[in-house]
Amino acid sequence: MEDVNRDYNSLNLTKEQEDKLIDDAFMDVLNGYLKSNHRKKVEIIKRAYEFAKNAHQGIRRRSGEPYILHPIAVAKIVSQEIGLGSTSICAAFLHDVVEDTEYTVEDIEMNFGKKIASLVDGLTKISGGIFGDKASAQAENFRKLLLTMADDIRVILIKMADRLHNMRTLSSMLPSKQYKIAGETLYIYAPLAHRLGLFAIKTELEDLSFKYEHPEQYANIKKAIADSEKSRACAFNDFSAPVMAGVNKMGLKFDMFARVKSAYSIWNKMNSKHIPFEEVYDLYAVRIVFDCNENDNEKQICWNIYSIITDIYRLHPTRTRDWISTPKANGYRALHLTVMGPNGNWVEVQIRSRKMDEIAERGFAAHWKYKIGESDEESELELWLKTITDILKEPKPNAMDFLDTIKLNLFATEIFIFTPKGDLITLPKNATVLDVAYELHTELGSHCIAGKVNHKLVAISQKLQSGDQVEILTSEKQKPAPEWLNFVVTAKAKSKLEAALRRERKKITEKGETIVLKAIQDYQIEDSNKFVTKLMGSYQFHTREDLYFAIGSDKVALTESVIKSLCKKQPLNILNKIWPFSNQKKDSNENTTEATTSNQKINKKEIYVLYSENGVQNYKTATCCNPIPGDDVVGYVNDNEEVIVHKMDCNVAMKLKSSFGNRLVATKWEESPLQSAFLATVNVKGIDRMGILQELIHEISINMSINIRKLDIEAKDGVFECMLDLRVSDARIVDRLCRQIKKIKNITYASRIN
Description:
Number of strands: 23
Distance between the termini: 32 Å
CATH class of the domain at 8-213: Mainly Alpha
CATH superfamily of the domain at 8-213: Hypothetical protein af1432
Low-confidence stretches: 1-5, 129-139, 368-379, 395-399, 570-591, 593-597
Structural class: alpha+beta
Number of helices: 29
Helix content: 40-55%
Mean pLDDT: 80
Strand content: 15-25%
CATH topology of the domain at 8-213: Hypothetical protein af1432
CATH architecture of the domain at 8-213: Orthogonal Bundle
Largest sheet: 6 strands, mixed
């Protein structure tokens, strides 16, 4: 990954040097375009560049560099990394002109035509980012983005390039802005890139986000990857030599190389498996990419190479993936297998043609390079975009829920389901019978009572496996139920189900409102608003809608005695006259531990130093992730000007970073020794033997002077597992303890889990 972050001002360039730098950057874009297979429409590209250059004249980025270098960089990514043509390159040059200058979309259309103007208009509409400060704005911007995708996929591809360059130059931003942009990137842009098949961009976006959110872990993993390069090279050479000899006999022109996992992917695996870097055995995958012409049978060649490999090495029986016969929904095609290598470790091998490889790396944009006349080449993408459009017709009122619903299908592992007629349906992993029903038709979903999976009767909540054949059974009497939301997983099913439930709830709510209004009329109640407010208080409902729904659904009975009691005048406390809200408990939705904090105004542009001394601390700890000093954390400033501290990779923090960037504050722990003790949970596993528990306790309590608050241990079939709740001052103590524990004989695993 190229590190392009630098202090531009330190270069001290003259006007002439700066102009040359800009022109050289443009020529780099143009020369790259001329080497591509696209039609050489040079004149319009030059005009777009000159137009953007003049429009952004005198404007600079935060890093100090001329602003025009950003559109040039975006155009380069669009052309050379995604593979788009002149129309997209022009739109990339012009993508910020309408937003940042006095030029309009009409000006763009007059100079460059409708196509380019349409792309610029689409990019301008979503220019404020997916997320805004208000919930409605978040949802609306995201809907705009997705709708524009459905209209012209190039808009989101250019937006991806824009986001990638912003991430590459993120170092010039304030730390709080870095967290917001990195969080937003991980939350939406990386999954979108994955769904569009932009694997290389998706990987870089994840790694860059990881770099800014967890700089220390990022640096450690990159160093570990570099340090293990020699041993990986030896292992690869041992593995590849006999395979290359076998493939050479086929007379193929091919490349065989090892592809190392990204730093983010390795870190994810270390966290999910609670293992150190040394125990990540699938650190790399072997890839074989072969050349073939249009007349060659790509599929047959892949299976011939597969046969050569399995003749040499033992095949893992459950880890073969045929993405050639059944491509992924993002267009990915390849043959994957896992074999036991000569050093005793499992090795994943990916077999692809050159065309498959380019599509895997560059996504659907690569299809356009090959100009294949097959209509089904982008059918999966079109189907997905149609699904998105269908969901948008029933948008959820809550913006974050809406985003979560969409995100369900962005990063999902896929399974393949067959209908009774043999049609193939692609669904996310853990999809149920009900998901299939909604995927086929909304009415089928709404009236689904059961299913037949491989001719066996099952419940609508039955989770499906890839290859299952599913038949849907329905009844006109069946209606959507709220509990269905507990097991449906597809965005389409959730969206349609919630829309149906909202319609049903609306009917019931209207019925309840009618009952209340009739009561007001029958008992001649003059102040109806006051009466309804009292009624809400009496039944402890926060909104009128909740009250009406409860009455309409017969959960609450509006009896004569209740109505009469509420109509009586109640004595008013003198305090309530003066301070009407004095006795009301302050509502708070913050999920935090108690702490003594100051309500000072927080400067979000500065790094907020977290301290804790004698039971007093200037922050609150989020109970969703329980961070302790030494963890990578981000601060969220609530309405009371209190800093709520979350772990950087906490799920709640992910949402906060993506939706409330203006409330984030960069934080760091106080460097002086902390007096406070924090709770940390450590998981220990090993082979059971006499005295191992005594040694474990001795190491923790005596050697490291750590207080054990709770200990749970279970031994079964010669293996034991122990959960320890410990009082520690910071995360470094826990890390050191885990390293010491693993030195005890027969202990194989020790890691903090909370």
